[in-house]
Structures are given as C-alpha cells and as structure tokens.
Amino acid sequence: MSSCSNERAQALQRGRLAARRRTTPFFVLIMVVAAVVGVAAILCLDGSQAFSLSPSVVPKVSARTTSLARLVLAAEGASAAAKPTLSGCRQDLQALCKTQPRVGYHFRKFLQEQGSTYQGYQLFKVPEATVQQFLALHARGALEQFEVASADALAKLDAVKDDDAFAYWQWHETIVQEAFGTKRPDGVPAQVVHKFLETFQAGGFERVDMGSDSQVAEVRAFQKTKGGSGHDIWREFCRSHRGQENNFDPKSWPAEHLRRFLDKSKASA
C-alpha cells in the first residue's frame, strides 16, 4: 500500500516538473517582450518624460509655435526627405552656371523679371517651362552681355572679405540689392564690385557689431545637438535671410542675429 502511494506521489511530482519546464520558457518570453516594450516607451518619451508628464511640459508645447520651432520642423523634414533630383534642362542650366558665371546673374534677373518667387539656389523648385524658356534665350544670345571685374579687383574683394567679417556680411547684403543675389563676384557686372570696394574703403556702410567669440561658440555647439539636426536648423535659419543663404559660418553673422537665434533655440529646447 505504501509502495503504491510512493509511486503515485513520484508520478505526480514528475508531472509537475514537466509542466513547469513547459511553462518557464513561455513565461521568460513574456517577460522579455514586456521589457522591450517598456524600453521603447521610455525612448519615445525622451527618457525624462517617460515617468512623469508633468505640467512643466506644457510651455514646451507652446514653444513649438515660435519661428525657430518651425525651423526645427523644416530641418527635420529636409533631413528625412530625399535630395531633389534635377530634370535634364535644370541639369543643363546648373552646368552652364558652373562654367559661365554670368549665367547665374542672368537667370536670377530673368526670374525677377518674370515675377517668380523662387530664388536662384532653389533651382529644383523653378518650373521646368521657365528653365526651358531661359535656356532658349541663352542659346539665341538674347541675354544682355556685361563686363566683369578684373582679376585684380576680384583679388582685392577677396582680401577685404577675408580680413573683415563685416565686409563678408555686407557683400552678401549688397548683391541682393545690386546683383539679384548672385553669389559669385566673377559673375556680376564689374561696377557692382567696384562700387562695393569704393564704398567700403570710404566707410560708407553703416557698420554693425559682429558675433562675439562666445556667441559663435554657442551656435557651433548647437549645431552638434538634437542628434545632428541642430546643424540643419542653423542652415534653415541662414536660408531664411535672403542674400545670406550660403553664409553658414556664424563668425560672419552680426551679433544681433546670433542673439536672436540663440534665444529662440533656448526657448524651444
């Protein structure tokens, strides 16, 4: 009798152990999945907000309505989007601008005369028909020809811009007014370069305070934040100022502009 009882007890124990062995892997799998989901939730909520969505978050939401917040969204969208592909005629125009600097000036002038809202650097946005019309004018030689500055004058301009950050900034402001925003000095009428040099050397431009070393350092540090999107945010800020679209060096920006950028970047942090 005792022997039978022992056998039944041993059989029952073996059954429990087998059931436990079958259950344990499934239980472990559930725990692993739960842990992964938990970590993902923390990352999505940016860590610090994962455990407490306090009222202090509300001001940050309202900050998204600021102009810098819009730049953040634009920069993030630009980073995520694929680089635009130029059509055949746009590629032809781009090649012409590289080999014939005057073409860039002519094209920007043509856009303005057409009442276009696009800038020269936004070539991928310009309607293809507009580009084709311009190329046809160029092929017929119907565009106004002009003399460009001499190599000596261009060298003087480069020296002035290299020596004085304000001169670099002011040159970009000048070409918006005098050369439709054409960046290359060897692609604008000679009188634009000569007039700039004469006015600058005579102290005819109202000087502004350029960014301090600390401001420049802060902007450069910001460009390395936000997982790299800080760099794109700064570039979007630059492109929002006509004439300074390719001026990405904070050292070449006035202190007032850098202060405004830094204030907004801190407000949206």
Provide a compact summary of the structure:
The protein is mainly α.
What does this 3D model show about the protein?
With 269 residues, the chain is mainly α. Among the domains are: 1-53; 88-139; 151-201, no CATH class. It is 65% helix and 0% strand. It contains 12 helices and no strands. The chain has helices spanning 2-44, 57-63, 67-80, 88-99, 101-113, 128-139, 151-163, 165-178, 190-201, 213-222, 229-239, 255-267. Helix 3 (67-80) packs across helix 11, helix 4 (88-99) crosses helix 5 and helix 10 crosses helix 12 (255-267). The longest helix has 43 residues, at 2-44. The chain is globular, with a radius of gyration of 32 Å. Residues 1-5, 17-30, 36-66 and 75-83 have low confidence and may be disordered.
Keywords:
about 270 residues, mainly alpha, 12 helices, disordered N terminus
Proportion of β residues?
under 5%
Number of beta-strand segments: 0
Order of helices and strands: HHHHHHHHHHHH
- Low-confidence segments: 1-5, 17-30, 36-66, 75-83
Mean pLDDT: 76
Please state the CA-atom Rg, rounded to the nearest Å.
32 Å
Portion in helices? 55-70%
The total count of helices amounts to: 12
Q: What is the topology?
A:
Blueprint: H1 2-44, H2 57-63, H3 67-80, H4 88-99, H5 101-113, H6 128-139, H7 151-163, H8 165-178, H9 190-201, H10 213-222, H11 229-239, H12 255-267
